[in-house]
Amino acid sequence: MRGAMSADVIPLRARGSQPTLAPMLALTAPGMNSVNAVILDRMQSEIPLIPALAGHLISGGGKRMRPMLMVAAAELCGYQGARHHKLAAAVEFLHTATLLHDDVVDGSDMRRGKAAANIVFGNPATVLVGDFLFTRAFELMVEDGSLKVLKIFSKASSIIAEGEVDQLTAQRRIETSEEHYLQIIGSKTAALFAAATRISAIVAEKSEAEEQALDSYGRNLGIAFQLVDDAIDYDSEASESGKDKGDDFREGKMTLPVILAYARGNAEERKFWEDAIAGFRTEDEDLAHAVELINRHGCVEATRERARLYAQRAIDSLSIFPAGAAKFAFREFSNGL
């Protein structure tokens, strides 16, 4: 499935505005055009189902945040080459593969505002094409030839898988703590953000301190992004979600809004949450009540506030880099939360 893929995607989904994100979009547009060309070329196969299913998600309006951050980090490091284009495509393939597998595990109906691939193509094909994208990602990494890059990507892939399993085991467990929740999202989401930004420093042959600064930026931004994403599921005023409203609630996921609402609730409210997370209260009226309780205790705003704290930590991580257009774009991007 060949088709145009624009670099002009909106990277963050909450509180940000197009003018705030404009510096990042302008900074990365030329590089993202090259990255998108690699993505389009390397998702092809002689088996027609593979590009059809992969394209259903990859060309479906995704933000491509992770490759965009890799391109931006290369600019921040003053890198003038093109190695990071293939590696950024590898990052997107890894991310897309995890999304395909997630939708099968979760039984999702929607992804990015349209029917999920597993609904259109079935679970077996979705899992296998996810596997194909994983192999394509590692092909691109091997072609790059850096064992250090390959080691970082491999470690991130392992951590992501562990995070997904950890989230699965925490599902429908009301006793899940905020600390455990942050551990889960630090693995399943932030690990790939950190790898994406750090690898640009490696490609640019920057110092270990600069590598670690970009690793810290990506890790903190990834946590902030997941916090915002989890808040959206219970935000009665949010309209920018690309998934069905209430998916996390019906799946019994212990995200921060729920953890906070349970901790702040009275005995009657806690009983509701215990029943809901256990899977006994999943109707539309139960979701409405959950949103009401979360709003009553200010849990969406509390979650967003934590996201802003992590976003600020991300910005602070870049103090080692000199001022300039790239650093300004990173700051504005983070403030978009």
Q: Outline of this structure?
A:
With 337 residues, the protein is an all-alpha fold. It has a single domain, classed as Farnesyl Diphosphate Synthase (Orthogonal Bundle).
Structure overview:
The chain has 337 residues and is an all-alpha fold. It has a single domain, classed as Farnesyl Diphosphate Synthase (Orthogonal Bundle). Helix content is 71%, strand content 1%. It has 16 helices and two strands. It has helices at 18-42, 49-58, 65-76, 83-106, 117-121, 123-144, 147-170, 178-188, 190-203, 208-232, 247-250, 256-264, 267-278, 284-296, 299-317, 325-335, and strands at 110-111, 114-115. It has a two-stranded antiparallel ribbon with strand order 1-2. The chain is globular. 46% of the residues are buried.
List keywords for this structure.
single chain, 337 residues, mainly alpha, Farnesyl Diphosphate Synthase, two-stranded antiparallel sheet, 16 helices, globular, disordered N terminus
